[in-house]
Specification:
The protein has 719 residues and is mostly beta strands. Helix content is 1%, strand content 48%. It starts with 5 loop residues before the first helix and ends in a 5-residue tail after the last strand. The protein binds beta-D-fructofuranose.
Length: 719
C-alpha cells in the first residue's frame, strides 16, 4: 500500500487527466502516525508509549513493513503491557478501509476495531508469527460500504499480556479502490444440517486464531478459538456433533478473509477424518495415553467405577497447543488399553474447564442420583473472571454430564484458586477437598453435600504449586495404621496425620520423582478396598514442545504407577512402581542368562524393536560405570557415586547387597526408569529416532555381573 497524503493523491488523479465525474474519489488518510505523538488519538494504559514507534522496540523481534518513519507499536514495556488508542470520530465516505497490521493474533485482545454507535462492526488482528521470524506489518482491508455516511471511531486494542501480546498498526486510509488483498469479513456464517457424528475443522498451527461459535436456534452451544486453515490443513480437529444430530446448526466465524476455505471446508464424517493412521503416527506413544487429536495436559477426575477407570484430562480439542480448556475423557478396564469418549465438560458461562477431580457419591450426599446406581460427581475450576469452583454430575457411568445449576459451589477466595481434589472422609461422613490458592499456598475444605464448602485450614507446601492431592494411605501396608499424604503439581510431598479438621505433616517435603516429564499427577478415587492400591497418573509434560510436531496430537500422560508408603529412619516415604497391568503388553521375551559383563560386551545386541520393557538385576562388581542405551537414550549408572543419569537428570540409586535393580519401559518418545527399592522414579521424554531400534548394555572400568536380564518386546496398547 502506498504511503500517500491526500493532496498528493488529488494531484495525481488530476494529472492522469481523468474527469472528476468518472474518477475514483481520492483516498482519505485517517492516520499515518508520522508525528511525535498520537495527536488526536486518545490513549489509555502504557502499551502504546508516548507516541508512534520508529521501528523495533527493545526486546522485540525485528519489525518492518510499516510506511514512513512512524507506526503504532504496543510493545512498549514488552508483551505484558496493555492499553488502547482511540481515534476521533470520522465519517465513512469510501467503500474500503485499508491499513497495515502486524503483531498479536488474538481476537478481541490485540486488534484494530471499527466501532459504530459503540459497537465493534469490524475487527482485525495481527497474524502472530510471520514467516521469516520478523514482525512484518501486512496490508489488510475491510469492506465498509454498507456504513457509508455513518460516523465511526477506530480503536487499537492491546489487552493481551502473554506471548504476542502486542499489536502494530500503520497507514489507515479510506479508499474506493480495492487493494489486491483479501477483504476481512466479520461474523461469517454457514448453516449445516447435522447427520454425522463428527464435525471436522481444518487446523493449521500458526494460522491466525479465529473464534468459532456453533449456534442452535440462535443459542451459542459451543464456542472456541481455532487456528483455522485457509487451504490445506495440518490436521482436522473434530467436534462431537452427536448432540446436534438431525438439527440445523449455524457455524459462525468471527473474522475471515473473503478468500478463505476455512468455513466452506468444514464437513461431517462418520469416522474421524483422515484417521486411517490414527494412533499409529510415527511418534505416537504406543502405551502412554494420548488424545486422538489436539492438546492434553493434567489428568482430571481420576475415578474408578463399576469396572472402569475414568481418565478425564485437560484438553484442547481444536488446537495443537494449550487452549479452550475442556475435559477430555477416556475409559479403561485395565489402565493400559483406553477407549476415548466425547468431551465430558465444555467451557460455560463461568469459564473454561480447568483441572479438578471426581468421586462416586455412594451415599447420594449431593442428591444427584436418579437411578439405582450412584452418581459420579466432578469438581472443577471454572477459569472465568474470576476463577471459581463448580460441580457436575453423571448418572450414566460418566457418559453424560450435567453441570449443577447453582454453580459456583465455591466462589473466588484467592488469586489463582483452582484444581479442587475431593476425597471421602468416612469417619465423619463428609467430603474433604484440597485446593490450590496462590504461590505455595493451598487450603483444605470440608462439605457434607459437595455443594457447601467451609475452610478447615490453610496449608503451605514449600517448593510446589497447583494441583493438590490429599489422601490417605496405609503405612507399611498396615490397614490399621494410616497416614495422609499431601502433594503438589511438581511432586513435592509431605506425610502426616489428619484428624478430620487439621492436617499435621510429620515429614519434611520430598520429591517423589526425578524425571523430565512429570507434572500435575492425580491419584485415583474409589479404588475398591479389595484392590486397595493407590494408583496415580501424571501428565507426561514434554520438556521439548516439538516432540510431536507434525502429528495431530500433542503431549501425553505418564504411565500409571502404584504408590506405597513405608517407614524409614527419616519418616514415612513413598515408593513408586509401574502398575502390574502393564504386563499385558508383553510380547516376545528375551531371557539373557546370568553372566559376567565385561567392557565391550553387549548382551542385548540381537534385540530389535521400538517398544520394550526391561528388568535388570546387576551385581556392580568392580565396574566403574554400567551403561544402558535404549534406542539412542543413554542411562548411566556410576557405581562409586551411586548415581543414575539420563539426559542430564541425575538421582541416587543405592546398591543393595552390591546389586542394582532397574525396571524400564521404552515407548516412542520416552524411557521410564524405575528401580532400586521403589524410590527410583525417572520418567524421561525424548523423541527416539524411529530408525534406532537397538538396545545395549555395557560397562566401563571393570567387570559387572548380570544376575537377571529380561527384555520384552511390547505390543501397542492401541491394537
Ligand atoms: C497445571 C494447570 C492447572 C490448571 C490447568 C489448566 O498444569 O496449570 O493448575 O488447572 O493446568 O490447564
Amino acid at each position: 500500500m502506498r504511503k500517500l497524503n491526500v493532496l498528493y493523491c488529488w494531484a495525481a488523479t488530476l494529472c492522469l487527466g481523468t474527469t472528476m465525474a468518472s474518477a475514483q474519489k481520492p483516498d482519505l488518510l485517517i492516520a499515518n502516525f508520522e508525528g511525535t505523538n498520537y495527536g488526536a488519538w486518545a490513549e489509555s494504559g502504557t502499551a502504546f508509549g508516548d507516541g508512534p514507534a520508529d521501528g523495533t522496540l527493545p526486546g522485540q523481534m525485528s519489525v518492518d513493513g510499516f510506511q514512513g518513519h512512524g507506526f503504532v507499536n504496543s510493545y512498549h514495556g514488552g508483551d505484558g503491557s496493555t492499553g488502547t488508542l482511540t481515534s476521533r470520530p470520522f465519517k465513512i465516505q469510501r467503500k474500503y478501509l485499508q491499513f497495515l497490521i502486524g503483531g498479536g493474533g488474538w481476537p478481541g485482545k490485540t486488534c484494530l476495531n471499527l466501532m459504530i454507535d459503540g459497537r465493534v462492526v469490524r475487527s482485525a488482528t495481527g497474524p502472530n508469527v510471520n514467516p521469516g521470524g520478523s514482525e512484518k506489518l501486512q496490508p489488510a482491508q475491510w469492506d465498509i460500504s454498507k456504513f457509508l455516511g455513518q460516523e465511526a471511531v477506530l480503536e487499537i486494542v492491546d489487552d493481551a499480556t502473554g506471548g504476542w501480546g502486542h499489536i502494530n498498526v500503520d497507514q489507515i486510509v479510506q479508499s474506493d479502490k480495492r487493494l489486491n488483498v483479501p477483504i476481512m469479513l466479520r461474523d461469517v456464517t454457514r448453516e449445516m444440517r447435522i447427520e454425522k457424528p463428527h464435525l471436522n475443522f481444518p487446523v493449521k498451527t500458526g494460522a491466525p486464531t479465529r473464534q468459532v461459535t456453533v449456534l442452535l436456534n440462535g443459542q451459542a452451544e459451543r464456542s472456541f478459538d481455532i487456528e483455522l486453515a485457509n487451504g490445506k490443513p495440518d490436521w482436522w480437529a473434530f467436534l462431537d456433533a452427536t448432540p446436534f444430530k438431525g438439527k440445523t446448526i449455524t457455524i459462525k466465524v468471527n473474522e475471515l478473509p473473503d478468500d478463505s476455505t476455512g468455513l466452506s471446508s468444514i464437513d461431517q464424517t462418520t469416522k474421524i477424518k483422515d484417521s486411517k493412521n490414527l494412533y499409529h503416527e510415527t511418534m505416537r506413544p504406543q502405551f502412554h495415553f494420548t488424545s486422538r487429536c489436539g492438546w492434553l495436559n493434567d489428568p482430571n477426575g481420576l475415578v474408578y467405577f463399576l469396572g472402569e477407570y475414568h481418565l478425564f484430562y485437560q484438553h484442547n480439542p481444536y488446537g495443537w497447543n494449550w487452549g479452550n480448556m475442556s475435559w477430555g475423557h477416556a475409559v479403561s478396564k485395565d489402565l493400559v488399553h483406553w477407549h476415548e469418549l466425547p468431551v465430558a465438560l465444555y467451557p460455560d458461562k463461568h469459564g473454561t474447564m480447568y483441572s479438578g477431580s471426581a468421586a462416586v457419591d455412594w451415599k447420594n450426599t449431593a442428591g444427584f442420583q436418579t437411578g439405582s446406581e450412584p452418581a459420579l460427581v466432578a469438581m472443577f475450576t471454572a477459569a472465568g473472571n474470576p476463577f471459581t469452583q463448580g460441580i457436575a454430575f453423571s448418572n450414566d457411568r460418566g457418559r453424560n454430564w450435567t453441570k449443577y445449576a447453582d454453580n459456583p459451589v465455591l466462589g473466588h477466595i484467592a488469586a489463582e484458586n483452582r484444581d479442587p481434589k475431593v476425597v471421602w472422609y468416612a469417619p465423619e461422613k463428609k467430603w474433604v477437598m484440597s485446593l490450590y490458592l496462590d504461590h505455595h499456598d493451598y487450603a483444605i475444605f470440608e462439605s457434607h453435600d459437595l455443594k457447601h464448602w467451609s475452610k478447615l485450614q490453610d496449608f503451605t507446601l514449600s517448593g510446589d504449586a497447583e494441583c493438590p492431592n490429599f489422601f490417605e494411605m496405609p503405612l507399611d501396608g498396615d490397614t490399621n495404621n494410616w497416614r495422609w499424604v499431601f502433594f503438589g503439581a511438581s511432586g513435592v510431598y509431605v506425610v502426616g496425620k489428619f484428624d478430620g479438621h487439621k492436617f499435621t505433616p510429620e515429614t519434611k517435603p520430598r520429591h517423589m520423582e526425578n524425571g523430565n516429564c512429570w507434572y500435575a499427577a492425580q491419584v485415583y478415587s474409589d479404588i475398591p478396598s479389595s484392590d486397595g492400591r493407590t494408583i496415580l497418573i501424571p501428565w507426561g509434560r514434554l520438556p521439548n514442545g516439538d516432540i510431536f510436531k507434525g502429528m495431530p496430537f500433542n503431549q501425553m500422560m505418564g504411565l500409571p504407577v502404584e504408590l506405597t508408603l513405608h517407614s524409614t529412619a527419616s519418616g514415612a516415604e513413598l515408593q513408586i512402581r509401574p502398575v502390574r497391568e502393564l504386563k499385558s503388553l508383553r510380547g516376545t521375551v528375551h531371557n539373557i542368562e546370568s553372566r559376567t559383563l565385561k567392557p565391550g560386551d553387549n548382551p542385548l545386541s540381537g534385540i530389535h524393536g521400538d517398544l520394550f520393557e526391561i528388568n535388570a538385576e546387576i551385581a556392580i562388581g568392580d565396574a566403574k560405570k554400567i551403561i544402558f542405551n535404549f534406542r539412542g537414550m543413554p542411562v548411566v549408572y556410576d557405581t562409586e557415586a551411586h548415581k543414575i543419569t539420563c539426559l542430564g537428570n541425575e538421582t541416587t540409586l543405592m546398591p543393595a547387597d552390591g546389586k542394582i535393580f532397574l525396571h524400564v519401559f521404552v515407548d516412542r518418545a520416552s524411557v521410564d526408569i524405575y528401580g532400586g527399592d521403589g524410590t527410583l522414579y525417572m520418567p524421561m521424554a525424548k523423541a527416539l529416532s524411529p530408525m534406532d531400534q537397538k538396545l545395549s548394555l555395557s560397562c566401563l572400568g571393570g567387570e559387572a555381573k548380570i544376575i537377571l536380564l529380561k527384555v520384552y518386546n511390547l505390543k501397542s496398547a492401541w491394537e
